[in-house]
Amino acid sequence: MKLEEEQKDTTVEGGTNATPIQARRRLPMPRLRRGGIWLYLAVIGPGLIASLAGDDAGGITTYSTIGAQYGYDMLWVMVALTISLAVMQEMAARMGAITGKGFADLVREQFGVRWTAFAMLVLVVANIGVTITEFLGAGAALELFGLPRVVSLPIIAFALWWLISKGSYRVAERIFLLMSLAFLAYFVALFFVHPDWGKVAAGTFIPSIHPDPAYIYLLIGTVGTTLTPYMQLFQQSSVVDKGITATDYKAARLDAYMGAIVSNLIAWVIIVVCAATLFVHGQQVNNMDDAARALQPIAGDYARNLFAVGLFGASMLAAGVLPISTAYSVCEAFGFEKGVSYTFRQAPVFNGLFTALIVIGVAVALIPGLPIAQLLIATQVLNGMLMPIILIFMLMLVNNKEIMGKYANTRLQNLIAWPTAIVIILLTIFLLISTLIFPIFGISLGQ
After folding, report:
1. Which domains does the chain have, with CATH numbers?
2. CA 340 from centroid of its chain's CA atoms
3. Are 417 and 395 in contact (CB under 8 A)?
4. pTM beyond 0.85, yes or no
5. What is the number of alpha carbons within 13 Å of residue 323 lying toward its C-beta?
């Protein structure tokens, strides 16, 4: 089989043309880790980090807005998206473990350069939008501490660029991850806000549809922030970089499932808390101050500070991962040199791309008078609209038995993944028609 021959080739360490990243990918996991709890501890990480990345600035704003605007009515969406996210993250992990290649590599090999360019364009557009939201989130967090964006953002952007360029981002990543744990306060808030548990249960298990553009808009935004395209690519690349193979696949699968469950459980809790604190009082989320009010029952006057710490940590965590993962994917797709250890002269495309994403993100975030909360949600809606394109590429690859062999998708996995793509496409069409076409004929679907 062609796949087996390629896998044999990639297991040879070194090679005169191999980059450090490529050489590292060829190394199998240490034998002592292949078994029991040690295996899981060695493999754990990609799924959890990739899924938690969805709980960033755009995610927190979207979930807070859902709770404030529709109360408990959209909780069922998180249940459905948890199933879809678990399947998609597992597919990405499986492709990485079985093929030993990233998403961009597989797209180029199977579909050619033109389709690869299209897929990478979709990825870059989506990731530019998310990168902008991360810097908007970081700037908004520091403004809650009284620091103006025009002063703070250039400094933190340069610091982030320097950490990535020097290969020191791993240390900062742990710090940002710890800061983002401030959002665990929402779990504590559950015991103080006294939600209506009957309505919570009904909203969680009984789908409630509002046939108006505002509801569909938020629904697509929720899909976009929960199933963000870069999460699947990050998952697959991380599995490959760790040297995870078919032998270790069960642990990688568990990691993907756990990441999806933990991430969306946090989202579910945020919606419940905001419904119980903001929706019941008719308060909307127009800015970060409004979102922070949901934590007042447990933090009082310090709610803004607690929210700001979590928002800053989550935003900076993703702001570092997004530019670098985007640069890796594009360079992997077209065979450019890649790696943070390379200078601009050695890897001009790689360094230029991740630098450009940071510069664009900061430049847009510094525009005065931006409606931050609304822009954060709009970016998630864009992600939701673009998500089916990446998902369809993934499904075509993971169902290709020449690539995946016996590890191709099962019928159940396809029954979950394909309808996810189709439903998102239909929702996007409905949103476009209801907002662009219907008004021409004087048709209104509500507020």
Report:
1. 38-441 (1.20.1740.10)
2. 22
3. yes
4. no
5. 33
